[in-house]
Design goal:
Structural class: alpha/beta
Helix content: 40-55%
CATH superfamily of the largest domain: Response regulator
Strand content: 5-15%
Number of strands: 5
Largest sheet: 5 strands, parallel
CATH topology of the largest domain: Rossmann fold
Strand order of the largest sheet: 2-1-3-4-5
Number of domains: 2
Order of helices and strands: EHEHEHEHEHHHHH
């Protein structure tokens, strides 16, 4: 798998040990001692990616980095790790879309299993996003109308065009997204807005 793991932990010994274990698992690792260091070097990629993030760090905490990434519209699965986190912090990171939370000390097999799952999640999300990006601006508008339950006739009246024009847009959308039903369309819309919902799910459009 062409994948990358971003490891962010201010503890040098923990970071080095985890990086070695992950690399032995056959994955590429890029390690950082702080959230700021990660943000300074981060660039969007088509690779499957996951972030292994320490909850408790000085200057920028794991939760603060998670919020910053959300503001930047960066959708990469996050696995939080922590040796001492309050219940409220754990609940908050999961509510904000974290894929997993592991309390130190944890089994390496548990971390590696979570990483593999998250990489598959990110690959599925990016496959869906790449197909959605093929839509024209008008097709994206039709996409939203259909997701909101609007009938073809109603869309045509709203835009003062013939229903056949809207049908053509719909056909192009379904072809580009490689789906057959409006249910699949809705599922894609939900996935694009909440990528973490892909965890443990199979999507009809997940193949890149």
């Amino acid at each position: 798998m062409n994948a990358k793991v971003f490891l962010i932990d201010d503890d040098d010994s923990v970071r080095d040990a985890l990086a070695a274990i992950i690399e032995e698992h056959g994955l590429s690792v890029q390690a950082f001692s702080s959230g700021m260091q990660f943000l300074e070097s981060f660039k969007p990629s088509t690779k499957s990616e996951v972030i292994v993030l320490d909850m408790k760090m000085p200057v920028m905490t794991g939760l603060e980095l998670q919020s910053k990434l959300a503001e930047m519209q960066v959708h990469i699965p996050i696995i939080f790790i922590s040796g001492q986190s309050h219940k409220e912090e754990i609940i908050q990171c999961l509510k904000q879309g974290a894929s997993d939370f592991l309390l130190k000390p944890f089994k390496f097999e548990e971390l590696l299993g979570s990483i593999d799952k998250c990489l598959k999640l990110d690959l599925s999300y990016k496959g869906i996003k790449n197909k959605y990006d093929l839509l024209t601006p008008r097709e994206k508008e039709v996409f939203e109308e259909l997701v909101n339950g609007q009938l073809l006739k109603a869309i045509a009246i709203k835009w003062d065009v013939s229903e056949s024009v809207v049908k053509l847009h719909k056909a192009n959308i379904m072809q580009k997204l490689q789906i057959d039903t409006l249910q699949d369309l809705t599922r894609i819309s939900i996935t694009l807005k909440s990528p973490q919902l892909l965890v443990g799910q199979a999507s009809p459009s997940a193949d890149a």
